[in-house]
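Title: [Solved] Solute-binding protein family 5 domain-containing protein 3D structure

Original question kept below for reference.
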Amino acid sequence: MERLKFTGLMAVGIVLSIMISMGSPLLAETPKRGGTLNYIFGSKIPSYDLHRETTFGVIHPFSPYYSLLIRVNPDNPSSPTDFVCDVCEGTVDPAGEDGGKKYTYKIRRGIEFHDGTPLTAHDVVATFNKIIFPPEGVPSSRKAFFKMVESVSAPDDFTVVFKLEYPSGSFIPALATPFNIIYSKKDLDTHGYEWHTKNINGSGPFRFIEHQPGAFVRGVRYENYHHKGQP
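Solution (posted by the thread starter after getting help):
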């Protein structure tokens, strides 16, 4: 059992979901920025690589350090069809183009990984190539979700194109799976595919500080997070 600690935040999303379910009058209070959130998860951490793991024992402690291409709408998390952009711009079109065989995403400009490296379409392509078309010997627990995908490409630095072999209603939900965190292409090229099992360099709302196995995982708010004013 490990303790997860985030400093420099008020866990508004978690707190609100609890208060709504309880019908609490505390909803009238104004959320305050700052503070520390501690919570406990009773699961062993097999590695830091969300692309290969299947347990929520990695989602809970490590997804806050990363971004996704698209995600479940955090304002409507119970909906199975409501998805919004994270590192992309605009809205998520479930229909796509070319009869549902092509999906194009424009990547937000100005996003940086926590090491200061700019995030571009090439990082998104490298990430999904690792997930969908992993080299021999590289585990990918979500490869089977993307059998309909023919290719992933970046025609320029801020455009990502998915081409499908056939239209599939499961493509968008698969794309929004929280395990599909965006890795830096530079890290993959420089350090290889095993590096993320023991190292973290994301672009999410929190920056990784340390992990003491069996004790805690600690992170702090990332001040340059691309969703301004959050967390």
